[in-house]
Specification:
Structural class: alpha/beta
Order of helices and strands: HHHEHEHEHEHHEHEHHEEEEHHHH
Strand order of the largest sheet: 6-5-4-3-2-1-7-8-9-10
Distance between the termini: 40 Å
Length: 398
Amino acid sequence: MDVETKMRFDTDNLSPHEFNVFKSKGIIIPADYNEKTKVDSDRVAGIINKGKKHFRIWPTSGCNANCYYCFEKGIKANTMNIETANGVIKYITGFLQQNDTLEIEWFGGEPLLNTEVIDHISSKLIDVCNDLNCKFSSTIISNGSIIDDAIASKMKDKWKVKLIQITLDGFSNDYDLIKNYNNKKLYNFYRVIDNIRKVAECGIHVSLRMNYDTTNYESLVKLINYLKHELSEYDDIYYYVYPVWSSFNEGSRDYFYSKTKADLNMLKLFDLIVTNGLNTPRQVSRLGYKPNQCLACSDNSFTILPDGSITKCSEAFFQVIGNIKEGIIDIDMYNYWTRRDLDQKCVECEYLPICQGGCTASHFNQMPQCFGYRQIIEEVIKWYVDKMIEKRSQINLR
């Protein structure tokens, strides 16, 4: 029996309800439906997206931590001044049209080391958006150590922050060792946990990333159990584990790019998060359809550095394509980042729907192009299916 006949036979034996469920989930599709065309059209729509303007702004490249894996390690600390901030405001305003959506992402370094510039740019751009009837929101990538009550309040009321990403690399002393803060008495694990509470209590969504580098498995087990006890009351915290990208490179602190026991330890961390009720199997495994590439590949997304230089991606901050005074100068590089076509190996890859071509920055640095646990994808899928079966059994028992 060939595949086509077998699938027709299986479909004929489904009840109408089962058939409709399979159809709604995309498991059964019309014979003339081209899934590749759908993936391509969704990706291109995300690249064009004329009404959405996204700017990742570095108020400073300085940081109060010294993480061993930081991709900015060794660069000179530079802090944006008000004059440059005014140039940033003018540059971004030039992109906006009536009824647009403007998203600002505060990055660094540690962006909260320069709240004066965040205050200034936020205030002016919110006024511009009000005049143009544009939607304004912001997000922050931060280590979370500097947050206090005043900053938490500003995030909510003045900066219109909808999400903050904070990274925890391990539990207690392990975290402090990896972060290696300049002032170890002032900034530490327990202060960051308190600050996460402050932000969550303001109603700001917290994306809590737990970096895994194969050496910190036991520490992350302790951390996840601790977070269950300390933070599970907050509904606006999203927990997930992801490998440190530098750990993909042979010769670095560890070598993660092979199918090892360490890889499967990450799957155990997925399971612990779900078992503790901190997230769902679907969200932890990230197996859902990804309609768009990274925002850096969008026509209207840029990174602005402290001196006013413009790049497409923070991970490729060294690749300057323009500045806030002259605009985009390197058109060829801009076109490369926003190209509609993918590498041929991606076009032919079975993981395309959950990857969409992967990381473009990987073409210019040592980051892996594909998603972080491709080497154990079969184990992840099996785990996910088992969790779905388990959930169904629990529902049927009620």
